[in-house]
């Protein structure tokens, strides 16, 4: 069993295809098949079900996958650290950012980082908090911006900033005359919400559960301009972070009663090697958060 076999095995498991794995790895498909066959022979186990074109792991394959991912990630971390000890100056940062922050908080920070570190490439992945957390744990991301709710022990975090989640309504809505909005009042209205898996939606789902009500969601979209437009025209109300609403928006924001504050953090795997490029990004982003 060697690292190449395990790398091929992980790719096949994640893509459910020998052909796609070979394309991703940049090798010939027969070489991938031979490597996996040898791995199975060396272990004396069948790791992959091969039924027609449907590829799936056996129970033994699923057990090996847990170890293989960790071994491949540790090997990549070790190689990267050794390269940097030789004076490796270029690098890549793979960071996951929720769309609300990616649209309104991070653009100037990302541009400023690129200006200071022009030789470091940035790969920004947009997604929901739960999705980004899983990608971090699987080694698909180096860093991820997530809401500090219930975090697994496998992740290390550093706080970026705190933001209030506000009720957002049209300027002529009844709530515009109120100072605060209770959950009971909020859930009587038709809502414009992000899709499931995004922290914006998770907070509201949790609030509805605590209030013992079912949210009346009329529109679901992750497009912030569309959420604003629907809300401005009075077809529903929504919730957003304070930073998202500007003076140009024809919208009114009100605090919940009690108010809802979110701690936004940047996270990374505890057991991983954080490259110099990632360390530079982490320090830069946290520095911006302290300036707010």
Description:
- Residues 1-58 form the HTH lysR-type domain.
- Keywords: DNA-binding, Transcription, Transcription regulation.
- InterPro entries: HTH-type_LysR_regulators, LysR_HTH_N, LysR_subst-bd, WH-like_DNA-bd_sf, WH_DNA-bd_sf.
- With 292 residues, the protein is α/β, with parallel strands linked by helices.
- It has three domains: 3-85, Arc Repressor Mutant, subunit A (Orthogonal Bundle), CATH 1.10.10.10; 91-161 and 264-290, Periplasmic binding protein-like II (D-Maltodextrin-Binding Protein, domain 2, 3-Layer(aba) Sandwich), CATH 3.40.190.10; 164-260, D-Maltodextrin-Binding Protein, domain 2 (3-Layer(aba) Sandwich).
- It is built from eleven helices and eleven strands.
- The protein has helices spanning 3-15, 18-25, 29-43, 59-85, 99-104, 106-116, 129-137, 183-186, 199-211, 224-232, 276-290, and strands spanning 48-51, 54-57, 91-97, 120-126, 143-147, 155-170, 180-181, 191-193, 217-220, 238-241, 251-269.
- The strands form three sheets. Strands 3, 4, 5, 6, 7, 10 and 11 form a seven-stranded mixed sheet that branches. The chain has a two-stranded antiparallel sheet with strand order 1-2.
- Strand 1 (48-51) and strand 2 form a beta hairpin.
- The longest helix has 27 residues, at 59-85.
- The protein is elongated, with a radius of gyration of 23 Å.
- The mean pLDDT is 86.
């Amino acid at each position: 069993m060697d690292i190449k076999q395990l790398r091929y095995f992980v790719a096949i498991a994640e893509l459910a295809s020998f052909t796609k794995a070979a394309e991703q790895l940049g090798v010939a498909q027969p070489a991938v098949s031979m490597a996996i066959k040898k791995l199975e022979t060396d272990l004396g186990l069948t790791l992959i079900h091969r039924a027609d074109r449907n590829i799936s792991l056996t129970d033994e394959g699923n057990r090996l996958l847990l170890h293989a991912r960790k071994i491949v990630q540790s090997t990549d971390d070790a190689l990267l650290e050794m390269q940097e000890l030789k004076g490796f100056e270029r690098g890549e940062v793979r960071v996951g950012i929720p769309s609300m922050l990616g649209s309104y908080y991070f653009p100037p920070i990302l541009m400023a980082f690129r200006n200071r570190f022009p030789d470091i490439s940035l790969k920004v992945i947009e997604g929901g908090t739960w999705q980004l957390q899983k990608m971090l744990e699987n080694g698909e991301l180096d860093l991820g911006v997530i809401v500090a709710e219930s975090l697994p022990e496998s992740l290390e975090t550093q706080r970026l900033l705190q933001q209030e989640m506000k009720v957002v309504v049209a300027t002529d809505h009844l709530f515009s005359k109120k100072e605060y909005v209770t959950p009971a009042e909020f859930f009587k209205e038709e809502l414009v919400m992000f899709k499931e898996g995004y922290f914006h939606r998770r907070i509201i789902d949790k609030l509805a559960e605590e209030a013992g009500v079912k949210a009346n969601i009329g529109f679901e979209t992750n497009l912030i301009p569309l959420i604003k437009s629907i809300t401005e025209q009075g077809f529903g109300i929504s919730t957003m972070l304070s930073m998202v609403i500007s003076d140009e928006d024809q919208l009114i924001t009100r605090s919940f009663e009690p108010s809802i504050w979110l701690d936004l953090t940047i996270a990374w795997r505890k057991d991983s090697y954080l490259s110099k490029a990632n360390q530079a990004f982490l320090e830069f982003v946290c520095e911006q958060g302290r300036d707010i």
